[in-house]
Amino acid sequence: MKIVLVDPSRLILKVTSGYLAETGYDVVAFTDATEALAHVQADAEVEVLVTGLEPHGLSGLDLCRLARDFVGARRALHVIVMSSSSESRRIAEALDAGADDFMSKPPEPEEFLARLRVAARATAAQRELLRLATVDGLTGLLNRRAFFEAAEQTPGQACCLTMFDIDRFKQINDSFGHAAGDRVIAAVAREAARQGDVAGRLGGEEFALVVPERRLADAIDLCEDLRARIAALSFADIHRDLAATCSFGVVARGEDEDIGAALQRADIALYAAKTSGRNRVVAATAPGDRRTIVMDRARPTSHGAEAARQDRPCVREA
């Protein structure tokens, strides 16, 4: 467990950090609350913040508020305030500022370690709640809400997005059963997750990816590679005739363009991919231009084996 410890007393920091480190905790100590806050913000693995009420830079209460505001509901963080005063007013102020616990200063080792065990249980429960709230249970990708939140945090400049879905998915369910359909969805999601970008399941058989710091041409190539890998998937253990392909709509997000608006353009491009034959990548033009550039690279596949590729760009009205 990573702990950030904040107090103006270097002696308290040295003694406390020493026995915590001997117990196996990873401790980073600060006398300045501003530096401590920056460290909490930069290191997502910090799970516990322990602060006195009067460090340098910021007050301990301000540090609690700012740290709590920063992590919000996106991250598990347990905050402990320590003070030489046990007045109920001080305790109430600390709890109102966002602290989860309060203890005397200097902390007694046995009590401190017990409180850290409580913190470990609490942060484990928070992480599980966050996982349930943000991760799609079948695929392990971000769910729709979490995907939009993560995508909004990606700078618009040099960012591309793609929406894609599984072609004729209803036929897969009808012909091979819903268990087979779930297998196909999970397999497609694994390939999407391999891209290393922000990936989400928007619902049913529909997915989305954020491709940061890429030009549109690079994003098209990335999607074409993903399309080919999905088309090559084998489901022979279920049925020799079961195969899956996906259609893609790709856009370059405009500067300051809302994620929802960018995904609407990607959805138009996805529709063009569907109506022009499926199993292909279609890229939309800039915001405000309703044309789409169709990268007609894919031919229909049979049992996961991809046929010869041809590049035939053309322009279609979306």
From TrEMBL:
EC code? 2.7.7.65
Keywords noted in UniProt: Nucleotidyltransferase, Transferase
Domain of life, source organism: Bacteria
Domain named GGDEF: residues: 157-286
What CDD domains does the record point to? Answer: GGDEF
Location of region: Disordered: 299-318
Q: Which residues cross the membrane?
A: none
SUPFAM superfamilies, per the entry: CheY-like, Nucleotide cyclase
Matching entries from PROSITE patterns are given as: GGDEF, RESPONSE_REGULATORY
N-terminal signal peptide? none
For molecular function, the Gene Ontology terms on record are: diguanylate cyclase activity
- Pfam families linked to this entry: GGDEF (PF00990), Response_reg (PF00072)
The reply to whether Electron transport figures as a keyword in the UniProt entry is: no
Residues of the Response regulatory domain = 2-120
The biased composition feature labelled Basic and acidic residues covers 306-318
* Enzyme class (EC, first level): transferase
Which protein is depicted? diguanylate cyclase
Q: Which organism is it from?
A: Methylopila musalis
Show the taxonomic lineage: Bacteria, Pseudomonadati, Pseudomonadota, Alphaproteobacteria, Hyphomicrobiales
